[in-house]
Design a protein that fits this description.
globular; Glutaredoxin; 5 helices; 120 residues; 42% helix; redox-active center
Amino acid sequence: MATVALTTENFDEVTGKDGIVLVDFWASWCGPCVRFAPTYERSSEKHTEITFGKVDTEAQQDLAAKFKITSIPTIMAVRDGVIVFSQPGALPESALESLIDQVEKLDMEDVRKQLAAHNH
């Protein structure tokens, strides 16, 4: 699956459904973002069950502000509507694969319990 452009209009809909969504916050003027793009694209072709989204932080400044994106690229992982990872920096392919593996193995029931405990 190719990447999906995420906007303020479709972000909640795409990231709110069951399954894994990876989000790449990027900008065309950002050298590391441009160098990371082919890695992200290859991973999207390898993991067709995962939605790979891209947020152009120039065009979608409201989304960048909402998630306090101060450094790009920033990679965010959302599983079943819950943000489970967010970190700035371009990942080497092996680290991106490791992140995907870890997100796939998460016990979402346990994650929700931890979130509920943290929010009380």
